[in-house]
Write a structure and sequence with these properties.
CATH superfamily of the largest domain: 2-enoyl-CoA Hydratase, Chain A, domain 1
Low-confidence stretches: 1-43
Distance between the termini: 75 Å
Shape: globular
Radius of gyration: 26 Å
CATH topology of the largest domain: 2-enoyl-CoA Hydratase, Chain A, domain 1
Structural class: alpha+beta
Mean pLDDT: 83
Number of domains: 3
Oligomer: single chain
Largest sheet: 6 strands, antiparallel
CATH class of the largest domain: Alpha Beta
Length: about 450
């Protein structure tokens, strides 16, 4: 068995050209390959004899389990369980991908799968919803960022890994699942019924806040189309006074898209850097003037469901003093994972580095603190109940009033891409962002 494990380590070294980069809570395969040198697998300062002694102890444990365990269990299952336990004890994001997990990873890469539309992670050892993806079954059912999942149907999530949880939540479209959750402010657990569906993520969409002539840019996740779609939106709205970038409940995604998005607004300096145990693997991602499109005033909306790539974008724009960050503190996920294939059907998701913002501060477990901290809610406002309107007069012009009302209904149906005053009054964070851009615009004009 010792020879087997030494051979296993050697095979991992030889696989360095097959490694696939991943980023974010939802591990997403990307086209480019991340080349990680064999120094990741270099020997520690321990002597060869102590390493062999440790491996010998491990093989004795495996042999003992195989011989004496109450149920008949084969060597493959024992090794898989031991690898799974090892990876889950390293950190919240490292894990063993068995055949099923590796297959699910590939399914997710296609951008369509039967599921709920939520991103989950481990927070203080419990399975926590990072954010529901906008427009998905979970979002429509009322699932919220920060909810703790106690049960998936009748299965307790105690000691359940993220991959196991994702596997249980996925299933055939139109099938029912019940999540038992704990929510802050609620005295009892809630049971939420959700009908699975094919998850198609529309990662970028835009609206216009017409009265103020501000572009509202919503990014729901960082898939491979984010930079291109954002670029198209900016070029088609060149005359706006400012931009609101909404990253609330955005769980992350591809690193190159996060870097590319920042580069549309920043023309020089470091966007983000990556540092690990081996200095040779440290990387800096720099802005380029040739890809910068606009320097219009910006406000970025974030909350506790903004994680990973969202934190890189908001934190980098904040460090460059390029945008005002508004909302609540972000999740705090700033580590780098890679997928290391063990064979054609299994692999490891392993944390190899952390991300750092331009100022040198880390995101991991800290998050991004907004410049203007404000909780979600409605805008406080009063309606003047004592004012008399034309329609309340005894002899008002009914015909003209009917024309105006019909015209108003028609406009509301046509202008679906316009954020109305009522929309703004329902979202105090958005209202704060709009007011911030108005102030920045006035300052620039002066």
């Amino acid at each position: 068995m010792i020879e087997y494990f030494l051979q296993f380590l050697g095979e991992l070294k030889d696989m360095k050209h097959k490694k696939i980069a991943t980023f974010g809570f939802v591990a997403t395969l990307v086209g480019a390959t991340l080349f990680v040198s064999s120094t990741l697998f270099a020997k520690s300062n321990e002597s060869e004899s102590s390493r062999l002694a440790a491996l010998a102890k491990y093989t004795r444990v495996i042999g003992t389990i195989e011989k004496y365990y109450v149920d008949d269990i084969n060597i493959t299952d024992i090794v898989n369980k031991s690898i799974d336990g090892l990876m889950s004890n390293l950190d919240a994001h490292s894990s063993f991908l068995d055949k099923k997990g590796f297959k699910n990873l590939k399914i997710q890469t296609d951008g369509e799968f039967g599921g709920l539309g939520i991103t989950v992670g481990m927070r203080k050892g419990v399975l926590t919803i990072i954010s529901p993806i906008e427009g998905t079954p979970a979002d429509k059912a009322g699932v919220k960022a920060g909810d703790i999942i106690l049960k998936i149907d009748d299965l307790s999530t105690l000691n359940m890994t993220i991959d196991e949880a994702v596997s249980h939540m996925r299933g055939k479209p139109k099938t029912k699942i019940v999540l038992t959750i704990v929510r802050e402010g609620k005295s009892k657990p809630l049971k939420i019924k959700i009908i699975r569906d094919i998850i198609k993520i529309d990662s970028v969409y835009t609206k216009v806040i017409k009265k103020e002539n501000i572009l509202y840019l919503r990014v729901t996740s960082f898939d491979k189309k984010v930079v291109q779609k954002t670029k198209e939106a900016l070029l088609s709205h060149k005359d706006v006074k400012g931009i609101v970038l909404d990253l609330r409940n955005n769980p992350g995604g591809l690193l190159n898209q996060a870097v590319g998005l920042v580069n549309l607004f920043v023309d020089k300096g470091i966007i983000v850097s990556q540092r690990g145990r081996d200095k040779k693997e440290n990387t800096k991602y720099n802005a380029s003037k040739s890809t910068t499109i606009t320097k219009k005033p910006m406000a970025v909306l974030v909350n506790g469901g903004s994680a990973s790539a969202s934190e890189i974008v908001s934190g980098s724009l904040q460090d460059h003093k390029r945008a005002i960050i508004i909302g609540t503190k972000t999740f705090g996920k700033g580590s780098v994972q890679v997928i290391l294939p063990i064979n054609n059907t299994e692999g490891l998701r392993l944390t190899i580095a952390r991300y750092y913002l331009p100022s040198g501060r880390t995101i991991q477990a800290v998050g991004v603190v907004p410049d203007v901290e404000i909780a979600a809610g409605k805008v406080p406002h009063k309606v003047n109940e004592f004012s008399i309107k034309e329609k309340e007069l005894k002899k008002h012009l009914k015909v003209e009033l009917n024309k105006i009302q019909k015209k108003k209904v028609k406009i509301d149906k046509v202008d679906k891409n316009i954020i109305t005053k009522d929309d703004v009054l329902k979202d105090i964070q958005l209202k704060t962002a709009i007011d911030t851009i108005k102030i920045l615009s006035i300052a620039n004009e002066r």
